[in-house]
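Per reviewer request, we include the raw input and output of the structure prediction for the construct analysed in the revised manuscript.
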Amino acid sequence: NGAQIQIDQFIASSEAKWGQKSRLIMMLPHGYDGQGPEHSSARIERFLQLCALGNMRIANCTTAAQLFHLLRRQAKLKKKPLIIFTHKSLLRAEDAASTVDELCHGGFKTVIADDIDKRKSLDRLIFLSGKVYWDLHRFQKTIEKPKTNVRLVRLEELYPFPAEEILRVIDEKPAKEVVWLQEEPRNNGAYLYVRDQMNKLNLSLRYIGRSESASPATGSPKVHKLEQSRLIEAAFSPLERTSKHQEITV
């Protein structure tokens, strides 16, 4: 926690204040498994508040190939610090594993959108970031006859904000509503930052996630598990049960 001073002074402000450039990479554990607050949050919201004028890069990868290509790209691009939020469980998760071909070819994708059935209308377009994608993806596969057609879109890079890629996904298959979903409490995580960026694109964004909290996490595995199940169910809830502009908090 005491590192925030050094981050503010010498990473976020390195060019603007000191005229110094670097390719420093910070990998910070971040993710919700029902552990205590300090095990769950690397404070994404604080880093995003420090972002301006292209001073650094913020990423949250969901696959091994994405992380590999992100690190390779970091060596090629102009010198900027790179902050990577990573969930420890994804280091060993089969979901996040990549093939040799995926590692050998291609490159880093700032946005990854799930495939869609072009024959069906799209009810809900859910933007999210990080490990929670795999929780939703696994749950979605268990639904035999979904009442709500949902498309999941991963923001792998949060800053610089991938506006063009997001607009392309939205235009590819317009949805009845656009949502930001996160595990973090409403006043934490990337929500307020993403909402502001979406407003600049004249896009309204609905929120699905935990309510505001003074703590980054509950610290209780039982409470966490209950909240997480409600969060996942809310993502696929029928549209008619909730107002389009009403936030869904768990």
